[in-house]
Design a protein that fits this description.
CATH class of chain A: Alpha Beta
Low-confidence stretches of chain B: none
Number of helices of chain B: 5
Largest interface: A-B, 9 and 14 residues
Mean pLDDT of chain B: 97
Shape of chain A: elongated
Low-confidence stretches of chain A: none
CATH topology of chain A: Mth169, Chain: A
Order of helices and strands of chain B: EHEEHEHEEEEHEEEH
Shape of chain B: globular
Number of helices of chain A: 2
Order of helices and strands of chain A: EHEHE
Number of strands of chain B: 11
Strand order of the largest sheet of chain B: 2-1-3-4-11-10-9-6-7
Radius of gyration of chain A: 16 Å
CATH architecture of chain A: 2-Layer Sandwich
Radius of gyration of chain B: 16 Å
Largest sheet of chain A: 3 strands, antiparallel
Oligomer: heterodimer
Helix content of chain A: 25-40%
Strand order of the largest sheet of chain A: 2-1-3
Number of domains of chain B: 1
CATH superfamily of chain B: Class I glutamine amidotransferase (GATase) domain
Helix content of chain B: 10-25%
Distance between the termini of chain B: 13 Å
CATH architecture of chain B: 3-Layer(aba) Sandwich
Structural class of chain A: alpha+beta
Structural class of chain B: alpha/beta
Amino acid sequence: MPKIIVEVMPKADLLDPAGKAVANSLQRQGHSAITNVRIGKRIELHYEEAPTPKQIEDAKEIAAYFLSNGVIEDVVSVSVEEL
Amino acid sequence: MRIGVVTFPGTLDDRDAQRAVRLAGATPVSLWHAEKDLHDVDAVILPGGFSFGDYLRCGAIAAQALVMETIIDAAYGGLPVLGICNGFQILVEANLLPGGLIRNEHQHFICRDQKLIVENVDTAWTNQFTLGQEITIPLKNGEGGYIAKEETLKKLEGEGLIAFRYSEVNPNGSFNNIAGLRNSKGNVVGLMPHPEHAVEPGFGPDTDKAMRSGVDGLNFFTSVLNWMVKA
């Protein structure tokens, strides 16, 4: 199934409590080389057929106004997954 | 005087908000998220809860609900709108108020009787307070940390758009101790704490005088009645 993948991350200067908890656990598990963990979201938009350029543009707009909040998060990528 | 209280899937405090409206002397009207019609109400309350399970972001899906299209238009036209807790998050996601609300700094859900300072009384929902008054109402949230860009904070501070600040304790790491905001017209107010839980003796926060006797929240609802009489 053709998909558009939207990746959203919390802004770099914001506290990411989930990432911090995972990083602390990794430290306890002995993975000392990992200095930090940040957790974001991967959102898949599914289509019947390969998305048109217009649909890709729409997806970018959806990512900006709805799937992310610019005060808190950044849209890292909007990409088409071809199968 | 008819005050609409919106119910979204996952709303919790709609009945308490209706009760507060009734105790203030107005008529509560149930509004449903999937209906555009506001049934000729004179004001709207977006109550607390976890609309749409807090999926995506708190308030993000509710901000796109059908009823919000009408409420956003009406708010720009001057309709008084109060957003409490999740309702505040919805107002922010709907761009009726600026900034964002993120997980509490200490990462825990918090429930406490919270002292606030009233920072602005020129609004539909705060005109029955005195400027600088200290009030106590319950606070209960997991994602109540208010954040905004530096330029937004400057505008909020410079233009008197902060309605309430946390007093004594900042319970969630909110920037500038911000507990609630108003828009420039003063008809839209949003805050994280819950005035509707402090409206009836016996069921409010403890005071120096008696247990559970705090009714500081009632003034929110009498304020909007006063605002409409004057309007």
